[in-house]
Amino acid sequence: MQIRSLIGVVVLMCGLSTVPPVPASGRRMDAPIRRAGNADSDATRVTILRDLHRRSDLDEAARRDLDRIIQEIERWLDGRSLDYFGREVSRTMDYDFGVAADSPLYPLTHLYRGRMVTWYALESGGVWKIPGRKESCLDVARGFFEKAAEAFPQNRITQMYLGTPIPSDTQHAAAVGAPEWAIYQREGLERLADIIEWWIDNRMQADGIIKKAIPEIRAPSPGVLYSIATGDPGTTDYFPLNAVRWLTPPRDIATLVSGQAKHRLQAELFHFGDATRPMGAEFYLLEPGQYTLTSTAGPEVIETQTLEVTGRRARVSFTLPPGRLCRLRMERR
Known about the structure:
- This protein is α+β, with helices and mostly antiparallel strands.
- The protein is 44% helix and 18% strand.
- It is built from eleven helices and eight strands.
- Strand 2 and strand 3 (264-271) form a beta hairpin.
C-alpha cells in the first residue's frame, strides 16, 4: 500500500514537471497587453504596444511578435487600401499575423481577423450577393470577435460587433411642442451629421481624400431622411427630383414635405433652437408663374410674400420662430 502511494506521488510530480512554465517575459507583458486589448482606439493600442516594445526586459521572441502586431495594426489603421488581406481571407477565412498561437500577444489578433473577414463579406460581390455565403463568412467573423471579447471584455468595439451598441455621447431631449416625426428626424440628422464630421476629422487626408470606409458603423438611413425632407419619393442615387432644398445647416431642424405638385408645395418645419432662425429654400418642380409663400404657426401668420417663378429653380428667404411647429405653403396665385 505504501509502495503504491509512493508511486502515485512520483507520477504526480513527474506530470507537474512536464507543464511548461510561462516565460518571465510573457508574465511581465500581461498588464500592458490587457490595456492594449481593452482599448477602444487602435491608435491607443499602438501607443501602448510601442511603449512595451521599448522595455529592456523582453526577450527576442516577444520583440519579434510586437514588431509584427504593431506593423499589422498600423497597416489597418492607415486605411488607404484595406484590400491587402482580401486574397488570403478569400482562401482561408483568416489572415496570418505571423504570431504564434502560444504567444501572449496572439489574442490581440482576434479583433482584426474578425474585422478582416467582415470587410471581405461586405465588400466582395461574390460573397454578399450569394444567399447563405455572407452569413457563413460572418459566422466565422463572429467566432473571432467572441474570442477577442473573452480575452478583452472591456473593449467596446468588440462588443459592438457582437451586437451591443455604443451609446452616443450626445442625447437629444424631446422639445415641448415638437411633433413625433420632428423629434426622430432631428435625431437622425444630428447623428448622421456627427458621423460625417467624424470621418472628416479622423479619416480625411491632407489632399482632401476620405480614406476608404470600414463597414462597421450603422448610420441612420440617408435615403429616408432625404425623402422626408425634400418630397422626392426616390433616393439621391437615382435621378434625384427633390421638390425643395432647404438652405440651412442640418442642426436643430426638422422638415417634412407634406404635399407637392407642379403648382404648390406644403411643408412642416420645426426649429429646436432658442432664437429666430433665418432660412432659405430652393424650389425645383414648380411651374412658372406668380406664387404666394405663407408661413404660419398655429393660427398666427408669421409672414407672407410673393415671388415669381421663371425657371427650374426659385429661391426664397424666410424665418422660423423657435420651438413652434410652422407650416409653409407655396401656392400659385
